[in-house]
């Protein structure tokens, strides 16, 4: 992730093209794209689902709300490597989307039981069904990873 | 003796009225023979016909797949989940084995939450990866099955068969030893057409039909039909007319 706040990008500066965040004469494209986004969904995107792996994980647990499993199996379910998803999985635990617990000698993850968080996830996933939203969100995530 | 009816046309008759309460029941067959369909039907009928909530514990398919497959038969699993009559749990054999083996596990909580009386485990074949030692694996299966019984569940356990047509392999590792009943689903070739055959191989503590029946997967689910008349060697996959066998055995001697 970039250390700058993606929602508050620096101004366009022709002298440093690698740091530009918008097109000259068009204002802040990102901000304009996000302006018409539902504030709650935008906040969830910016602060919780701020990587493609987290997006995959949130969708997976939304569609399989009763899943409890190890990191290795969850990685397999979403078609990624366990080492790659570890930090994102832990971030989602910290942000309250997932719960981590132990069963026997296994560490397992499951979706939070918190109804409010589940409602936010539902709202986000529902918004993700819209292509325009996905385009904007992907743009936002790509900018965030630069 | 209390029976847990499958509600599947023809099958309950073969099972002498249904499965025994809190029993573990194996259904084995090749891909496409309808094991999961039979299991989903067992759960769906349990909820809608007998008011017995159920769980589906899946080790390979996403919950979404079950919703979609069930919808093809007109079974609305999403609505049943919303009504707290059903839970579709995608997990792994190691986690479910450990979860049920410990106190206050998640699966146990879900069983209590909806008052589940039935469970579909799809499929037991995934236990194979837990240990290379067949004795240890059988011990784990035995423990797992007993934990389902402890929770008061009547279980339907599916298992993949590698053979598309014909006899089967590795009987010494067979989970059929720890299951209370064993239903085999097979493809059979008759006059250049592939049909499906069902046999109740065993049912512990109960009588059951010994004949081999045809079945079809219809738009309403599985329907068990008439037995194969005048043929033998059905489960070999290539049945012969009994008259041919008679000629082979006696006339050509």
Identify the quaternary structure here: heterodimer
Tell me the Rg of chain A in angstroms.
17 Å
Q: Which stretches of chain A are low in confidence, meaning pLDDT under 50 for 5 or more residues running?
A: 9-27
The helix/strand series of chain B, from N terminus to C terminus, equals EHEEHEHHEHHEHEEEEEEEH
CATH superfamily of chain B: P-loop containing nucleotide triphosphate hydrolases
Report the helical percentage of chain B: 25-40%
Rg of chain B (CA only): 19 Å
Count the domains of chain B.
1
Number of helices of chain B: 8
Distance between the termini of chain B: 50 Å
The amount of beta strand of chain A, in percent, is 5-15%
Uncertain regions spanning at least 5 consecutive residues of chain B: none
Write the CATH fold name of chain A: Arc Repressor Mutant, subunit A
Helicity level of chain A: 40-55%
CATH architecture call of chain B? 3-Layer(aba) Sandwich
- How many structurally independent domains of chain A? 1
Number of helical regions of chain A: 7
Question: How far from one another are the termini of chain A?
Answer: 7 Å
- Give the overall average pLDDT of chain A: 79
CATH hierarchy, class of chain A: Mainly Alpha
């Amino acid at each position: 992730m970039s250390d700058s706040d993606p929602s508050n990008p620096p101004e366009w500066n022709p002298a440093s093209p690698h740091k530009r965040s918008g097109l000259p004469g068009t204002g802040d494209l990102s901000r304009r794209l996000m302006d018409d986004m539902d504030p709650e969904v935008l906040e969830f995107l910016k602060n919780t689902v701020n990587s493609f792996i987290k997006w995959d994980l949130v969708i997976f647990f939304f569609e399989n709300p009763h899943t409890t499993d190890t990191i290795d199996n969850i990685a397999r379910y979403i078609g990624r490597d366990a080492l790659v998803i570890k930090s994102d999985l832990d971030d989602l635990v910290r942000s309250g989307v997932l719960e981590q617990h132990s069963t026997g000698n296994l560490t397992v993850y499951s979706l939070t039981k918190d109804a409010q968080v589940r409602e936010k996830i539902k709202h986000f996933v529902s918004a993700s069904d819209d292509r325009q939203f996905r385009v904007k969100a992907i743009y936002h995530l790509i900018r965030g990873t630069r | 003796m209390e029976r847990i009816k499958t509600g599947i046309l023809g099958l309950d008759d073969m099972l002498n009225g249904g499965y025994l309460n809190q029993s573990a029941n194996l259904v084995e067959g090749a891909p496409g023979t309808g094991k999961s369909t039979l299991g989903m039907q067992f759960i769906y009928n349990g909820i809608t016909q007998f008011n017995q909530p159920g769980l589906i514990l899946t080790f390979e398919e996403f919950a979404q797949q079950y919703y979609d497959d069930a919808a093809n038969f007109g079974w609305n699993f999403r609505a049943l989940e919303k009504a707290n009559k059903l839970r579709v749990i995608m997990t792994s054999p190691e986690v479910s084995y450990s979860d049920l083996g410990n106190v206050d596990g998640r699966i146990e909580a879900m069983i209590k939450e909806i008052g589940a009386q039935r469970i579909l485990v799809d499929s037991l074949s995934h236990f194979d990866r837990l240990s290379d030692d067949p004795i240890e694996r059988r011990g784990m299966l035995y423990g797992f099955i007993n934990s389902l019984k402890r929770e008061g569940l009547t279980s339907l356990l599916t298992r993949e068969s590698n053979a598309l047509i014909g006899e089967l392999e590795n009987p010494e590792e067979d989970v059929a030893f720890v299951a209370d009943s064993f239903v085999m689903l097979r493809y059979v070739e008759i006059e250049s057409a592939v049909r499906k055959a069902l046999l109740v191989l065993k049912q512990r503590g109960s009588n059951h039909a010994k004949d081999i029946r045809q079945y079809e997967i219809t738009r309403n689910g599985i329907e068990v039909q008439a037995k194969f008349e005048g043929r033998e060697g059905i489960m070999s996959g290539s049945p012969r007319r009994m008259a041919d066998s008679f000629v082979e055995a006696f006339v050509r001697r």
